[in-house]
Automatic annotation (TrEMBL):
Catalytic activity: shikimate + NADP(+) = 3-dehydroshikimate + NADPH + H(+)
Domain (Shikimate dehydrogenase substrate binding N-terminal) ranges: 6-90
Stated name of the protein: Shikimate dehydrogenase (NADP(+))
Top-level class of the enzyme under EC nomenclature: oxidoreductase
Active site annotation, chain numbering: 67 (proton acceptor)
Role this protein plays: Involved in the biosynthesis of the chorismate, which leads to the biosynthesis of aromatic amino acids. Catalyzes the reversible NADPH linked reduction of 3-dehydroshikimate (DHSA) to yield shikimate (SA).
Domain Quinate/shikimate 5-dehydrogenase/glutamyl-tRNA reductase: start-end pairs: 117-190
GO MF terms, alphabetically ordered: NADP binding; shikimate 3-dehydrogenase (NADP+) activity
UniProt binding sites for NADP(+): 79, 127-131, 151-156, 218, 241
Family indicated by similarity: Belongs to the shikimate dehydrogenase family.
Keywords: Amino-acid biosynthesis, Aromatic amino acid biosynthesis, NADP, Oxidoreductase
Organism encoding this protein: Caldicellulosiruptor changbaiensis
């Protein structure tokens, strides 16, 4: 049986094995996907050595905090990874490791379902970490031109602005003053509001005086964060991070097994069922 893994820290609540094993069984692929907790960089090194030796390992996903560290061990990177400088998917081919990023595709696909043309919209991204990078790259690919970034650590947001300068103009907003400006779309990429701290919100929607078209939270546990609840109370469109997670998983499976054709069918027919099953596990 072939093997796939998710590596990272604090994976106890991860639902990735549920999603991937469902996709694998749907396609009749004889493989199993499981989590591997790696407490430090030394363990990451050991894991990579194990992967290179084990002929049954096809690839692995990478999550916090190794999305950047993993690049050091990869022989090749995709064009997207070269730009984003973070990978969430690695494939082993002829003993060599190639890094991919499917987070941004997951984000883009989930956003496309909401059916808003983002090209002329004012977009606020909360946070400046790995998920923010994936969302910004996704927006760049969708042709967005007015992207604002607010982050607790201001310098990290300015670094992000400089980093993406070649592709998209980002404007940095002071975290403490972010509610004073007008946006059409808000994307939360911070962990504020995530289980167990469900009473927190990264943005005061209740007091916000401008009209919003969409509030999107990359968090999926809980499915309805405080941020999204408050947006729904004001009749604003909302979306959580579950579809992003599922779509990025499907994209990773496509890469590992060179699937292109039938998976599109799977996406349409099974995604809703899978979302419901995943939500029932909370
Ligand atoms: N749905 C999906 O498929 C998906 C995929 C990836 C990530 N995510 C979500 O995105 C979140 C962030 O992931 P990441 O990879 O971007 O992590 P990361 O690289 O560690 O970045 C976290 C960001 O959140 C900010 N932050 C953290 N705690 C904060 C707090 N208490 N107050 C204000 N800002 C805070 C950090 O600000 P500083 O710079 O000041 O530290 C940083 O900008 C995850 O928790 C997850 O919920 C979802």
């Amino acid at each position: 049986m072939k093997k796939l893994y998710l590596i990272g820290k604090s994976l106890k609540h991860s639902i990735s094995p549920l999603i991937h094993n469902k996709i694998l069984s749907n396609f009749g692929i004889d493989a199993v996907y499981s989590n591997v907790e790696l407490p430090d960089f030394e363990k990451l090194k050991e894991f990579v050595e194990m992967v290179k030796k084990d002929g049954d390992v096809v690839g692995f996903n990478v999550t916090i905090p190794y999305k950047e560290d993993i690049l050091e061990f990869c022989d090749e990177v995709s064009e997207d990874v070269r730009i984003i400088q973070a990978a969430n998917t690695v494939k082993k081919e002829n003993g060599k490791l190639k890094a991919y990023n499917t987070d941004w595709i997951g984000f883009k696909k989930s956003l496309e379902e909401v059916n808003i043309d983002v090209k002329d919209k004012k977009i606020l991204i909360l946070g400046a970490g790995g998920a923010a990078k994936a969302c910004i790259y996704g927006f760049y690919k969708m042709g967005a031109k007015q992207i604002f970034v607010a982050n607790r650590t201001y310098e990290k947001a300015t670094r992000l602005r400089d980093y993406f300068r070649e592709f998209v103009q980002l404007q940095v907003i002071n975290w403490l003053k972010k509610e004073s400006y007008e946006y059409d779309i808000i994307i939360n990429t911070t962990p504020i509001g995530m289980f167990p701290e469900v009473e927190k919100s990264p943005f005061d929607i209740r007091e916000y005086r401008f009209n919003l078209l969409l509030v999107y939270d990359t968090i999926y546990n809980p499915p309805l964060t405080k941020l999204l609840k408050e947006a729904e109370l004001k009749n604003i469109n909302t979306s959580n991070g579950l579809k992003m997670l599922i779509y990025q998983a499907i994209e990773a499976e496509k890469i590992w097994w060179n699937i292109a054709k039938d998976i599109e069918q799977f996406e349409k027919e099974e995604l809703d069922v899978l979302s419901r099953n995943v939500l029932m596990t909370y």
